[in-house]
Amino acid sequence: MTSPGSWPTPITSALVVRAAAALGEVVVDGADVWWSESRPAEGGRSALVRRSPDGTVTDVLPAPWNARNRVHEYGGAAWTVAGGTVWFTNFSDQRLYRLDPGAPEPVAVTGEPAVPSGVRHADLRVAPDGLLAVRETHAPSGAAADVVDEIVRVLPDGGEDVLVSGPDFVSDPAPSPDGTALAWLQWDHPHMPWDTAQLVVRAADGTGTVVAGGPGESVVQPSWAPDGTLWFLCDRTDVWSLYRWAPGGEAELVLDVGSDIAGPQWRFGQSRFALLDDGRIALAYGRDGADRLAVLSPGAEPRELDLPYTSFSYLRAQGSRVVCAAGGPAAERVVLSVDVDSGQSEVLRPARDLGLDPAWFSTPEFLTFPTPEDGTGIDAAHAVVYPPANPDVDADGGLPPLVVMVHGGPTSSHDRVLSLEIQYFTSRGFCVAHVDYRGSTGYGRRYRDALQGRWGVVDLDDVVACARYLADAGRVDPARMAIRGGSAGGYTVLAALTMRPGVFTAGASHFGVADLGALAAETHKFESRYLDGLVAPYDPVAGPSGNPVHAERSPINHVDALDTPLAVFQGDEDAVVPPSQAEAIVAALRAKGVPHAYLLFPGEQHGFRKAENIRAALDGELSFYAQVWGFDLPADEDITPIEVRGSVH
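User: That's the sequence. What structure does it adopt?
Assistant: Structure tokens below.
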């Protein structure tokens, strides 16, 4: 009997990256549909692709051009197209470029900034009098406090007129159909856009109106209809619901489906509804861990479409059709065009051909499990569980090991789309549980706010409760339970191993946070006050810890309890969670002699985009578990074991 972890599988790290292209934004330009693809085989370059009505698919942006921005460090909406002309931010210098139809190469629109990559643009929107954008300007000091965000109009000669300035953050510039008004979103420190954001409309006479939003109320995705009404999503009713506003009136609730339509605005350009030409609205919303795509007609209830997908994003109108990115438990993300009348769909950009029988894919289960109430008023959390799946192996060899996966954010959630990274583990005999702890999005504001002031407490309780729930149910081996996560998920990994020791027997932190005070002092502007709400306000005069609560919740201050083997993976150009965070925890592991491994990837930022690094991290993590738990690596994959320092018993 082959032990779990050693099961032979075709889902190797080579397959994970082979012909991989992570689908990004989708844009409709007349009869054409465009999208971006992040390609690991090309160093993580974001390429632009156009599909014509006759089905011809063309790579529009040749290498080495890379349509990716660094506004808020997470970027988004780095390109747009109108009439076949493309405007985009090039990643290497963050300058704006334009590519006209038939032109051999893009031409620069903006000049060289005084600070390299110091002027960045996002949320690009073509308007009759120029290109609208969010501009983020970095000062020579490099300090987060000196970064300025504004909405600008980019003129044909590269000049820029400032349209909105003053708020700490702005997004979603949207000119009205007649060009007389401008709508946008704004928010200020210490809030994040999912906590408090205002929707503002400035009329032709310069007067501004706050349409919605304010303390305890978040607004996303303002979109003008041809009749001059403004549509948006707001969480005034606890969940992000659909609203409409007409100039001179009050915002009115149009649709509350009892669950979130929107998601957190980590990246620019998100779109969860689309205004169709005939006045109907296509929209996506989540329920029980999966998305539905529906169409809303005036005066009627939403009609859900029967489609084999559980995730929908970047919804765009194209006549009576909606074009979007879609994916499901057995399908990687595709570009999909749906006729909202018949419900018939056409895949415009298929997923790659993996050449695998679906029996290799674990079928996800949505799980709600009890968790300590902890003063939040909520005593249950959620997870999506992926049991082991391998049609070539008799699985009667004992309970499987568990990998608890923790999403980033922490204001985020698990996206139920086929992930070869998850299947890499489940096809080898692991059970994977992706936890949407209290604080995750998709379950309403009350659930999201349960993490306020409690990060490093509630999330730990929930990942521990999920692991114990599965172990007590006899579904996993309690002696072989690992926890892994990236960014904020990496923080939960480190915090669980130091502040809830004895539950997990291995861990993997991908660019995780070890020191909250250092993070608040060093991270970029967008998240520089994030911990004010999640933990406690940061006080720079309080010393390196920033705040006694920061110190209490920092894993680096609890390494005396850290005796669990840990693998650490980090990019050396990460501006969100700097390498110093990883190096601090690795130094503590080394000093204590705890078994550990550390891989630092040159040229990687917050998340790994290069094929060779994705493979090294995935195979390295598997080989780490193999050495800790004592199973053999599959011989035919020729995986080089990661170097583990410290004694493995």
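The chain has two domains: 26-349, 359-515+554-637.
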